[in-house]
Amino acid sequence: MNLLEIKNLHAEIDGKPILNGVDLVIPAGQSHAVMGPNGSGKSTLSYVLLGHPKYTVTKGDILFKGESIVDKTPDERARLGMFLSLQYPTSIPGVTGLNFLKNVLKNIRGQDVPVREFRKEVNEALTKLDMKTDFMQRYVNDGFSGGEKKRNEILQMSLIQPALAILDEIDSGLDVDALRIIAQNIEAMRSSERSMLLITHYQRLLSYLTIDRIHIFVGGTIRMSGGKELAKQLEESGYERLLQEA
Ligand code: ADP
Ligand code: MG
Ligand code: MG
């Protein structure tokens, strides 16, 4: 089954076209990477997939589990199983990580999560991410270091257990140890039912992961797709030469 099908997707913000015909299919169980230069529209693609209201889809369609979702709200998309880790996670002063997560899970699962079970799930996820329990008492992303923000995103993902995880530059600003831990946690979430879309600039993150396909994204569209070797070629050649040689 194809979990995600993006068909000739065009989208704009404030009348400015950013996505110019994106076609992408991710079968259930596969992890795909999107790589592309700054400003090519990668983050826009992730926002449009989750239904950010600032962006307008002007053409094309997005099918999730075989159903068109372009008219659905971000909340509905999340409940269907879509998850986005933002390139720049937003802080929520006044709301502790624990309370935030409890509410997110309640919304997605449609029922209260029993306190003891919740604590256990959170503690297990924290341990896997090499994080301390008191981290959850802090306000969400408030004064977090770059690495803490990214760990927190992965923590959310591991509790939410989404069908589709879109991770926008989850590896940016991480030291080598944090990168390895985050990569291990991402890889551990691979399953035959779950798909992932990883947006990254670097081959390094991908080297830790099972990646089924890499897409080179330039000017709001996928210009080239291939296997994992593409990331290495890209690092050696750069975008312009890679596309010219192809
Ligand atoms: P990437 O993630 O690949 O670096 P983005 O999706 O963030 O690219 O941005 C794609 C393009 O959209 C850029 O040229 C950026 O300047 C433009 N853009 C983003 N937000 C807005 C906005 N609010 N108004 C106009 N242009 C925008
Ligand atoms: Mg960028
Ligand atoms: Mg971006």
Using only C-alpha atoms, the radius of gyration works out to 18 Å
Bound molecules: adenosine-5'-diphosphate, magnesium ion
CATH class: Alpha Beta
Strand content: 25-35%
Element-by-element helix/strand order: EEEHEEHEEHHEHEHEHEEH
Domain ABC transporter: 4-244
InterPro entries: AAA+_ATPase, ABC_transporter-like_ATP-bd, ABC_transporter-like_CS, FeS-cluster_ATPase_SufC, P-loop_NTPase
Family: Belongs to the ABC transporter superfamily. Ycf16 family.
Keywords: ATP-binding, Nucleotide-binding
How would you portray this structure in words?
This protein has 246 residues and is an alpha/beta fold. The protein has helices at residues 42-50, 74-80, 97-109, 115-128, 146-160, 176-188, 203-207, 229-245, and strands at residues 2-13, 16-27, 31-35, 55-64, 67-68, 82-85, 92-96, 139-140, 164-168, 195-199, 213-218, 221-226. Helix 5 runs parallel beside helix 6 (176-188). The mean pLDDT is 96.
